[in-house]
Specification:
heterodimer, A: mainly beta, Archaeosine Trna-guanine Transglycosylase, Chain: A, domain 4, four-stranded antiparallel beta sheet, three-stranded antiparallel beta sheet, globular, disordered N terminus, B: alpha/beta, Rossmann fold, four-stranded parallel beta sheet, about 15% strand
């Protein structure tokens, strides 16, 4: 069931939308190298990224669900390490395969 | 805290507004209706109608539901005279609901000026009468609330929609009725949604409803995932849909309703806006207002509208609470917004706090508060052709 329980750390730049989520979401533009504390972890931003992009909160093994809002948004198409950018290059829909869109990948 | 009050209708429902509708039954009578309503304040007198001249069971059902909505106190109907709308049936339905109704036929009464004179006099009488109509106490559990999102951006699914979901959870917990919609924007999360049904028998219907929407929009050539979505950080269709879905909150889903159909009980309902059968008449809902009007036709006293890019719309009949998800948009359009969910990314509020604020803003509407769009005179209305819902009652309703 989806809940949108908000964890601590939302003011730092990364929002943890649901306690079971294994990703966090940028709520402002982030700069490469920024170190942000969120839900007890310290994440180093791997690249400049815009509002709405996702970083892995924990390691996610290949084939495992990526969880946002407490629900799966697809699976890891390759192993994802904590702090990695999670996007089209390492996250695949279980529903409809979306072709990589030029200029928006990592 | 002052208690909510409302106007008690003959069917037992209560309204938080008491408007006089001036309703055209074909576009040819639209201008006459606008002129009838012109001297009056938009909070008292509002224009709605069905433009088409060809018959429409959907248009008929929608007009009957809207003209007998609990927020409506009286109805002036305006017909040209030769259109196909079943105006006598509509007048009978309104009359049977206990509301004053007056039918003017322009061709019979002798043209525009005669119609205008009679219409204005009748409407003025109704406004005077309704002004002193007694109110009764109203409980939160008697509210019907709808939610939509429009002008969405990357912030909608992060702040505004989850906060609206929190408000929905509070309303459902207190016994109110809530409706969310746009199955076309739920493609990819139907299995997650199906896990939330209160009755397992509803599960296949939820999945079928979204699959129907996917087929329908594919036929319309609707692209469900764009380059802009990916630039905004969205990676999959599930993720995009979940952002919109978040506004439904976390309560169990009690059933599916169709446009102009009232939810049969308390709890959370999915409004299926996509007609059955082969696509006809184009897109199911041509814009945000068409969606808002369908929620109102299902009995919504008020609608929560979450926007990221910004919107100024309100609605005829029921107030629209606008929740702005994006702080930069709120900086630019604060006058049009009721709730600033953009405080969340700036650290000024949590999702819980904004959810409580949305809840409080809705309850305040029953204690005399007005929305920003009401204060600014917004009474948007759109109703187009659509295939009517199946005549047999849904087994899941």
């Amino acid at each position: 069931m989806i809940m949108t329980v908000q964890s601590a750390g939302e003011v730092s730049g990364l929002l943890h939308l649901h306690p079971s989520d294994n990703i966090v979401v940028a709520i402002r533009p982030l700069a490469q190298g920024e170190i942000i504390d969120v839900v007890g972890r310290s994440i180093t931003v791997p690249r400049d990224m815009g509002l709405g992009h996702k970083l892995a909160l924990v390691d996610i093994a290949e084939g495992c669900d990526v969880l946002k809002y407490g629900a799966p948004i697809g699976f890891a198409s390759s192993a994802i390490s904590a702090g990695d950018h999670v996007h089209l290059h390492n996250l695949t829909s279980r529903y409809t395969v979306i072709e990589d869109i030029e200029g928006t990948n990592a | 805290m002052t208690a909510m009050t409302g106007w008690l209708r003959a069917d037992g429902r209560k309204g938080i507004r008491n408007v006089v509708l001036v309703a055209y039954l074909v576009e040819c009578a639209h201008h006459v209706c606008s002129k009838i309503a012109k001297p009056f304040d938009e909070s008292d007198v509002q224009v709605i109608g069905f433009s088409g001249c060809f018959p429409s069971d959907y248009g008929q059902e929608m007009m009957e539901a809207l003209c007998t909505h609990p927020n409506v106190g009286a109805v002036q109907l305006v017909s040209l005279g030769c259109e196909n709308f079943r105006k006598q049936q509509l007048e009978d339905v309104i009359s049977a609901s206990g509301r004053p109704v007056n039918l003017i036929t322009i061709q019979a009464i002798g043209g525009k000026l005669a119609a205008l004179e009679e219409g204005r006099a009748w409407v003025e009488d109704q406004v005077d009468t309704l002004r002193s109509a007694p109110k009764v106490p109203m409980d939160v559990s008697e509210l019907v609330i709808g939610t939509i999102c429009g002008g969405s951006d990357a912030t909608s699914g992060l702040t505004g929609n989850p906060a609206a979901g929190r408000a929905f959870d509070r309303f459902v917990a207190e016994g109110a009725t809530c409706m969310f919609e746009e199955t076309g924007e739920l493609i990819g999360c139907e299995h997650v949604m199906a896990d939330r049904v209160s009755d397992p028998a509803l599960r296949p219907a939820i999945i079928a409803t979204v699959e129907k929407a996917a087929r329908y929009y594919a036929r319309m050539g609707y692209g469900s995932f764009s380059n802009g979505n990916a630039l905004g950080g969205l990676s999959t269709i599930e993720e995009k849909s979940l952002g919109a879905y978040a506004k439904s909150g976390s309560s169990p889903i009690s059933g599916i309703v169709r446009p102009a159909q009232r939810p049969p009980g308390k709890g959370l309902y999915l409004l299926d806006v996509v007609p059955d059968g082969d696509p006809k008449f184009g897109f199911p809902n041509i814009n945000d207002t068409a969606e808002i009007i369908e929620l109102i036709a299902c009995g919504a006293h008020a609608v929560i509208f979450v926007t990221g890019r910004g919107s100024v719309v309100g609605s005829a009949i029921s107030p629209v609470i606008k929740v702005c998800a994006n702080p930069e948009t709120h900086d630019r359009m604060a006058d049009d917004m009721d709730v600033n969910a953009g405080r969340i990314p700036r650290g000024g509020a949590t999702l819980d706090e904004v959810g409580d604020e949305i809840y409080g803003s809705i309850v305040a509407l029953g204690r005399g508060a007005r929305t920003r769009s009401e204060a600014l005179g917004h009474v948007e209305f759109v109703l187009t052709y659509k295939t009517a819902r199946p005549s047999e009652p849904s087994c899941h309703a």
